[in-house]
Amino acid sequence: MIVEKYDIYEFEILEGWRIYKNDFHKIDPSDNISDDDKFNFIYCLEDMLLIYNDEFTLDLGWYGDEDGQYTIHFFKGNWLVGELLEKHSSNKSLQIATRINEILMAFKNGEFDNINGYIVDENDLNNQSDFWDLNNFEPTNPNTPNTPNTPNT
Question: What pLDDT digit, counting tens, does each position of 42-58 carry?
Fold first, then answer.
């Protein structure tokens, strides 16, 4: 049995969903831990959590160096062909863990059913969008034009 140096966040996984990877530790950059541990358990983990089902993916990583943030990407599809439905960033792990649970519950309650997201299709040469160009991303609800709609915010 492997003993983790720091506790890992656990999530209530919905039926049909799977965890591919979970290296999301209950630590923050502001915690009184060694710089080496911050480097190994936060700053170098762009891929720290991946939860998915047949249609949707929730991805969490740390983006940036010491001044970076945890960032959640929740999308229909995957990184190559997908529709980003929500992006949320924070340097507080508990805030991120709470938002992940909120996203999963919003999904369960159908709150993403009528959301239009940011579409990326790496196979479509006419689609110039990519997931790195997301600083101004706001999903919208097509039933209320021009109204951003981010569930549970």
Answer: 998 889 999 999 999 99
